[in-house]
Amino acid sequence: YTFDVTEVLFGAGYVPSNSEKYPLFGIISALYDTFHALPKITCSKTGALEDVRLCLTKDFKFRDCLGESKCPDEVSLPEPDVNRIARLSVFGQKSS
């Protein structure tokens, strides 16, 4: 299975932006509406969304994640750092 959180957020109108702020409740609601479980979200000290976790039962069904999300009421979804992605891509390549 593939669980594309990015696609869910795009579909709900949440797109990466270095200047736009989005309501955390709206992001959680979009994910809950799709996966029928509460995600665990972490943010940077500046309020940028860093991590979205979906929790599963032992039989791979979604369940609510435990603990609160430590984020402000409004969060940013930073645009990807293309230089970092390029470095990771090169680093991750297998040599022939």
UniProtKB/TrEMBL annotation:
Sequence intervals crossing the membrane: none
Residues annotated as signal peptide: none
Q: Which SUPFAM superfamilies match?
A: Ribonuclease Rh-like
Q: Name one GO molecular function term.
A: RNA binding
Family stated for the protein in its record: Belongs to the RNase T2 family.
Q: What is the protein name for this chain? A: Uncharacterized protein
Q: Which organism is it from?
A: Staphylococcus warneri
